[in-house]
Amino acid sequence: MIFTSSLLLTILSIAPESTIIAPGAKPELLQETGAGEGPAWYARLGLLTSGEGNVNLRSRDGKQSVFMEDSGSNGLLIDRQGRIVIADAKRRRIVRRELDGKITVLADRFDGMRFNQPNDLALDAKGRIYFSDPQYGGRAEMEMRDAAGKTVEGVYRIDPDGKVSRVIGREVERANGLVVSLDGKFLYVADNNNNTEGGARKLWRFDRNDDGSVDLKSQKLLQDWGKTRGPDGIKIDSKGRLFVAAGLNRPNPPFEIQDKATAGIYVFTAEGEPLELIPIPRDECTNCAFGGDDLKTLFVTAGGTLWSIKLREPGVVFWP
Length: 320
Prior knowledge:
The chain is mainly β. It has 1 helix and 26 strands. It is globular and about 55 Å long. The protein has a single domain (5-16, 27-137, 150-310), classed as Neuraminidase (6 Propeller), CATH 2.120.10.30. The strands form 7 sheets. A 4-stranded antiparallel sheet has the order 1-26-25-24, with no helix packed on it. A 4-stranded antiparallel sheet has the order 2-3-4-5, with no helix packed on it. A 4-stranded antiparallel sheet has the order 6-7-8-9, with no helix packed on it.
């Protein structure tokens, strides 16, 4: 069942005692700057975030520093070898920071066309990287088209051998956050066209094949946020539950005009049933990541600020 945004909030607001949040835990503001997007837990160092054009580090003892200058980054991912994969929106490419600090370009074109603004990243069990490629703001420099010449803001896959494939095209309006289910059967995609009247603010699920491709006919709508801010980053916990950054605390005309809305992390089952809302008192809530030694701390980026809250169950990371 797909709930309207207002009904979803009603359901979540009357939930019984939390099964998600640790007893007595509340969102805590950690820092006011440097955390616009891309949170990723790097166990040896602390939490990496994207902000002010850099990859920033919040060390394990809470100190802030710039980890990589002028990274142009949005989404960040630590792969199974401890390397940092970066969605470089500024240079329109996906790169990887190797263990020795060198930068490897993994993908900057598809069929000869430059990407739009690579945004977020996901990884499967075989090391295949999925990334979204939306276009926010001006569209004059867009090159990405389908066979009919229509613009595409879809999802791509990079195989371990370097091959790049488009797995989702115009089946979504503007792909953003994405994650692969724990069993590898599904790819979840946030469709976040917030700066268009009537644009998509939807969470989709696609069946995934063994070769990493997606069954486009399996596309299933899990949730629609209506006229508030749609889904952005997505993460998954050890029980397969989806943690989705979405919503606004106040309307943002002319496109995000819903009065009853709340920014935060919306938690769903793998089937898309709403479980709980973790409210964050700062707009815009862009993404989240699990971290801490027990992986039971949820870090949330919102409007450049960084928040944390303790959970009952650990999340999923790929390294170590």
